[in-house]
Fold this protein.
Amino acid sequence: MNKVSGLARLLEAGHFGVTCEIGPPKGVAVDTLSEKGSWVKGYVDAANVTDCQTAVVRLSSIAAAVHLKSLGLEPVVQMTGRDRNRIAIQSDLLGAYSLGLRNVLCLTGDHQRFGNHPEAKGVFDLDSVQMVEMVRRMGDPGEFLCGEPIRGELPVFFVGAVENPFAGSPELRVRRLAKKIEAGAKFIQTQCVFDLEGFRRFMALVRARGLDRRCHIVAGVTPLKSARMARFMRDQVAGISIPDKVVNRIEAGADPAATGVDLCVEQICELRRIEGVTGVHIMAINWEQVVPEIVRRAGLYPRPAC
Amino acid sequence: MIVAEPKSFGELVEMVGDHRRLLVASCSGCTAVGGVGGVRQARELACALRIHFRIRGVELATEVAGVTRQCDPEFVAELDGAVDRNEAVLSLGCGVGVQFLADRFNRVPVFPGLNTRFAGGLTAAGIWEEKCRLCGDCILHLTGGICPLTRCAKGILNGPCGGSQDGLCEVGDGMPCAWQLIYERLSSLGRVGLLEQIRRPRNWADSGGGPRRLGNGGAGE
């Protein structure tokens, strides 16, 4: 069993990383999960497994990550503070480590109001910054949040966090990003970027504070499958900014899905040229089978061995 | 102040049930200020209940009595005589008041006439808003006088989360993002550097071990 995260080794070696996202099923049938895994295998360095995203109950991220790992994928376990307090998070992460999982992405979590149990009590005992620090300290110096030492082998995770460059003032976002890095985040995956100009401004602030030299910044992209999806994401999804020219191009295309892939490939090529961006995170929502084409066309295939 | 709202009339009727002599106890504290628990509301409620039962062929006798504050045993004692004349008490105090009445008058059932909602105040005409979670560990000096525990939908201490957009919270209802407000306030105070400090996880030990207590039992000043 690898002691160290493969994703960490690859990024530390200076490779431009490629990650993607896989949503676990709303049930116990893991054949669709395995199918998604088989589509992306070999095309990504790691696959994030979402933790009841949008507050909808799904198969647990740790269990799904174990299934994907058995297929030979490198999973990134997403862990939110919405449904667990500090005891449960630490316990689940000990379990995750014991099952061979090495990457954790810490998130505060989508509010339960958006999910299929809006009457649930949101926990939010820890926010993402506090969780990052706790997970980092579990590995080094090797103690629980309470300060008690962890006996035996230490759970040294490759700790990541997210950032949304488009949620409010960029200056405020970068301040918060700095806190996550200070807390111990080694890689950052961003919300999907459509507004390249806005993202370049954000990255300029990141570089001005030297944050790009302290962690790996993996820029998020999402291929738009239809004009309807483009409009929905632009108008309805909080924290996502899609310029009208992007929506217009999808609407004008004879084959919107093909145009969406074209756009995504172009965005990746642009993102690679931005100083401080060390990878891309492809969030192909319910469209994981398109990931290989995007990776190939962006010139990111084959992937280096990690 | 404590902000409360009336329970539905149907719920109150169900509570009154077969009792035929009811004391409606008002409170001149928070709930009176909030326009739901004062003497006037107690009289109106008593009248409405009498009419409700009368048109169903049942005579309900009501009495209205008020105290300065139901959360103070000395004032609650003023209700001794009135309680003796009745079979049940409907309190228009907050949840604290109801319990003080129930503790003193254990011969009769005490019903809550209100749902106690939160600690807050008026932010616009007729709009009450929660401002304090009564957490017992105030950090308002670090957040520009804006409580993130109360006013952020996730109660996070290192915000804002990724759902903040155009100054609004992703949860909706036009609610402002508390962390955007904190950022703006601290900026105008020239104290935005406070946002660089990582706020450690909160100590919830105080609020999860049964009723919180305060004071030294009168042992010295």
Notes: The two ends of chain A are 14 Å apart (CA to CA).
